[in-house]
Amino acid sequence: MTKFMVFFLLCVLVTPVSAATIYKWEDEKGVVNFTDDFGNVPSAYRDQVEVKEYLTEGGSPLTTMEKPSTSMAPPPKEERRADIYGRDETWWRGRVRPWNDLLKEATENRERVQQKFLAKAEELSTGTYWSRSQYQIVAVELDRLKAEMGKYETQMMEAKEQLQKFEKEAEETKADPNWLRY
Length: 182
Hints:
This protein has three helices and four strands, in the order αββββαα.
């Protein structure tokens, strides 16, 4: 019998207590709306929202608190924007970043090689006392630098084409064009 009494007292004394906040507003059509997330309240109705907090014990309300000041209301959630397929800024930036990086790297490399090419060409044009083999070595080096510049120009064109495809895709899917800016 004592075990039963102890169990009964524990059940009565240890009831779960929880809190719930309910936001209520009426829209322009007179429809009363309820939500438990302040971020779901349209910004046009946030000044007229009624806030009720319920402390419950075992599912029945203990107390009700009326609308707190607006400074106590939780901040609105940031609206997460997405394209028509639900892809957000993070997705788009992750897709564009490698191509922007490739374009930047290829541009820098091409400029570096172009500077070497111009220096070698200057060296070749002022070297009147050179032997034929020295002239041929510099000419071969110029050809190699020219081919290397061509490789970087190809990479630049490929990256630009891919970025243009992304811009077109973003436009078609109603993605924010700023998401493609690096």
